Amino acid sequence: MISVSKLLCGLDAEGDGLRYDAADESSKPQITEKRQRRPVVVWNTTKRCNLRCEHCYAAADHTGAPGELTTAEGKALLDDLAEFGAPVVLFSGGEPLVREDLPELVAHAADNGLRPVLSTNGTLLTRERVRELQESGLKYAGISVDGLRARNDRIRGQEGAFDAAVRGIEACLDVGVKTGLRYTITEHNVADLEGVVDLLVDVGVDRFCFYHLDYGGRGAQVADADLSPEATREAVDRLCTLTREYHDEGEEIETLLVGNYADAGYLVEYARREFGEEHAGRVRRYLERNGGDPTGERVADVDPVGNVHLTQFWQGYALGNVKDRPFGEIWSDESNPLLARLREREDHLTGRCQGCAYRDICRGGSRLRALAVHGDPFAPDPKCYLTEAERASG
Amino acid sequence: MVEKTNRNGGECGPRSADGRRFEVFLREDAPDPMRHVGTVAAPTPDVAHEEASKLFGWYARDIWVTPAAEVHRYSAERLGRSAESADPPQNGDGTAQTSGSTEEPRVREETEGTPFVRCGGVVPEDDRDDETDGRPMTNHGGSDR
Q1: Does B41 fall in a domain?
Q2: Is the reported ipTM for this assembly greater than 0.95?
Q3: Residue B113 is assigned to a structural domain of this protein
């Protein structure tokens, strides 16, 4: 996760300590004072969802999966995560709000020192439910909107989903739970990028996370709708411009990019072009501390039946299952040769990554896309959009 | 008897939220033991082998796959409940079950360097002969034979 608003506009945020080891430089309360040593854990609490989005990495459906973790098992998982030192647990799905025990699980996470946050389609959020989650200790709700009304509803497979999600956002804002947008950029919705930000700023949202498409679950089935490298570059450039325009007007929105660490190299190049060498050097140092693509290191995923994945998008392979071993043992077991090699992947990347000057702040980008397209988890990310000259410059 | 480990058993069921999964085992070199390295989602053993090869082909000499849903797991701990603290399963009248239950704690005994564990509450006919060859059998009711 790369903060465009921090790197280009100097915006302080709660995640500065977590992401850049820059808590001392921030005036905002911090999620953690030190850069994370343990992964943020996404827990897909259920496969069940009231929507059926075309790019869903979890391939969620209207029915749950047999063998999903029970309330007791979920609490034991949260105990394991707390003991291991995970800083944040992201309750996700499917749609986590279809689980009636969600407030109980959120409260258990909070009581054990985890920061509970939520990833939801927002359509089931009412003021009452938000209030209940807030009282349980919920700190943040990321709500998925993938375009303006018509495009969003087409992508999400349900008319009215856009209006329901906006009502959910308003419910969070009314109750006082911090909320932000989650937006997966594809050819199907890239045209709406600015429109959605403009609309949601008016509603009161000030945090916007833009995800590049990764090729897991139904995301793999719509890979042909992924942006070309050139179109990706243009979309990132538009987001940079949009962020700067808002900040220039005194509206300090937070904008973040997720899922394609070519963005790291591009932001250094952008800063050099727009602000000069000194600013570019500062951006690069932040990104060195950030650590590049987090697969198998700073992000982990536990699916509805307890399988532990390298990222939430990489559901096709699991390191183990929390029903068999505690999460921390699975995550720390580097006798697994893939896990060990991923954690030293700079030495094993192939092709154009080998000579890339941004290899240290990118670390190869998405290993899942490399696997999906090249059949090799150490091949170059097919969606790297840096030019040959940029890869040579550093 | 030099060691006892209570195990909860019978964990044999869905291990996938996305279709069929296969447990993957690797051997790096001929003298090495097989090593468990997780699971892959795949519809058939051949596809599972293909998927595992993409991930581990650079490392493994041998790759074995087996359907995750067909593995019977007997473990000292289960998520949310350790075998030590687990209440025994109850019969309809509230008394503890002593056999025939997948929830029954297992006892591992080790004698003469040959540990083994039986699963299931009833001693199979074929196994009863084992009692006569000097090797101890797993306890089925919580007390030593």
Answers
A1: yes
A2: no
A3: no
